[in-house]
Amino acid sequence: MSILVVLLSLAAGAYALAVIERWAVHGHLSLTGPAWAALALMGRESLLARKSDRLFFELGPVLLLVAGLMAVAVIPLAPELIITDLATGALFLNAALAYVLVALIMAGWGPNGAYAMIAGWRFLGQFIAYAMLIVMPITAVAMRAESLSTVEIVASQAQLWNVLYQPMGFVLFVVAAMGLAWLPPLDLPDATGELAGGVEAEYTGVRLAVLRLARMVIILALAGATVTFYLGGWLGPWLPAWAWSAIKILVVAAAMLSVGRYMPRIREARYLALSWKLGISLALANIFVVGVIALVVPI
Amino acid sequence: MTVQMIFLAFFGGAAVWFGVVVFRTHSMVRSALALLFSQTAIGAMFLVMQAEFLGVLQIMMMATEMSVMAIFMVMFMMDPGGMGKMDMTHQKRLSLWAGGIGLLAALLLVWLPDWGPVALSVPGAHEQAADLGRELLGRSMLIFQSAGLTILTAMVAATMAAIVPNAEQRK
Question: Is residue B171 domain-resident?
């Protein structure tokens, strides 16, 4: 039952997000826009590059979608509204998201195109730099909750949301999440300006529709993770639990989508250097500070 | 128990089959990703055996590791796409011997020692994670920390050895 509810709300959320993205990019709000765009993609011819690695080309978008859905499975929308409350939920989220990398390498290598391939390998560098900034802040969150279960992580924030308890971890996690979902200004794998669409360059028709949908699911999963780990999940006054989750996730996702419109894209070498030199040091400092706070003032 | 055995056999078979694919394909990326899916199947076997933390950890770690291996294979092999039909195998006799001896050793290790009684009840996933944490930060801490530090030192040293200083830095 809760699987059906979560999947339906995921579909609704993905659609809402598509509307918001269209609004942020093109500047006009159209409620039916994404539906027409999806229909248009369905009707369009699906091209296949010559001498492509057919298996990877077809599997890439599908694996991306599966990875996104797996990640969503451990995100609680309400105390009972979660697909599976794993004891290792926070770790499982990382495991699912690691396959975003595999899917993008497949999608980049598959079509036998230079831009797509460069983009796929570029995402490898980006992902390895930023995976640590996903894992290390989650470590600090789990330290406070004394559990890896996402439900217990939300419950641990009843007194004080983690965004106030460990603001540094919050900032690192959001930046890393944007890098993981290749959102502008960190959209190096499909950098429109230099790689002509990158990973998306060779995809058309239904395959592109699946790729776009998968990316929406991943953005929602990461927004859901941000809300679960830092913004108190379903916690909030007056409204029912699921409503708070929905509002928070949509607001975080919309913020992630909008930020990039006002910032220039970062050069890749600088972006990676920032992660390795500054990001990881800050993430380690965050773990230390949270550890000290947890020992001295247990709240 | 039988359902568990069926799933265990299925994922075990998948792990072996993907392992065979590694050597059957000519494409370096396919080869690396086949190894990844072989390892993922082993992670799934851990999950079937109710070792949740280990399973999830295996599935997570291998994704990045095998992807990194894929890019190195593409960089160093002469025919990474496998479209030139180049034979990239060598030292076949040695490999056969090494493989045979490895298989024999694994079989002996399975059959010969007395493994003791099979665990009939497994602690819950929460307790497992907690127990693992106590083990890693207690009795086994010295071993794991020194291994970790050694690997880190090796990585830093390898990176330093690999970096070719450019003209500006040499001054």
Answer: no
> Tell me, what's the pLDDT at B103?
93
Instruction: Establish if B56 touches chain A: CB-CB under 8 angstroms.
Output: yes
Nearest residue to A174 via CA among A251, A110, A62? A251
Please provide the average confidence, as pLDDT, over all residues in chain B. Answer: 86
> Tokens at residue B65, please?
């590791």
Domain boundaries, chain A: 2-296
Q: What is the DSSP letter of A265?
A: P
pTM of the model: 0.87
Say if residues A192 and A201 touch (Cβ distance below 8 Å): no
From CA B81, how far away is CA A11, in angstroms rounded? 37
Domains identified in chain B, total number: 2
| Plot region of A236 (φ>0 → left; ψ -120 to 50 → alpha; else → beta) | left
**Residues B5 and B76 grouped into a single domain:** yes
B1, pLDDT greater than 80: no
Q: Does B126 touch chain A (CB under 8 A)?
A: yes
Instruction: Count the alpha carbons within 13 Å of B128 in the hemisphere toward its beta carbon.
Output: 19
* pLDDT tens sequence across B113-124: 888 887 778 888
Looking at chain B, which residue has its C-alpha nearest residue A100? Answer: B63
pLDDT beyond 80 at A150: yes
**Which of B53, B81, B109 is the last residue in one of the domains?**
B81
Q: B92 in a domain, yes or no?
A: no
Non-local CB neighbours of A186 within 8 Å, separated by 6+ positions: A126, A175, A178, A179, A260, A265, A266, A271
Between B140 and A297, the more confident residue is B140
Kindly list the residues from chain A whose CB atom is less than 8 angstroms away from the CB atom of residue B67. Answer: 101-102, 105, 124, 127
From residue B97, how far is each of A202, B6, B87 by CA, in Å? 45, 32, 20
What's the domain range around B151? 125-163
A20-57 tens-digit pLDDT: 878 777 777 778 878 888 888 888 887 777 777 888 88
Residues B7 and B73 in one domain: yes
Question: What are A108-131's pLDDT values in tens digits?
Answer: 888 887 888 888 888 888 888 888
Tell me, yes or no, whether B100 lies in a domain: no
Same-domain pairing of B77 and B1? yes
Q: Which of B46, B81, B116 is the last residue of a domain?
A: B81
Determine the residue of chain B that is closest to A128 in CA distance: B64
**Which residues does B123 contact at the CB level (< 8 Å), separation at least 6?**
B131
Contact present, B88 and B72 (Cβ < 8 Å): no
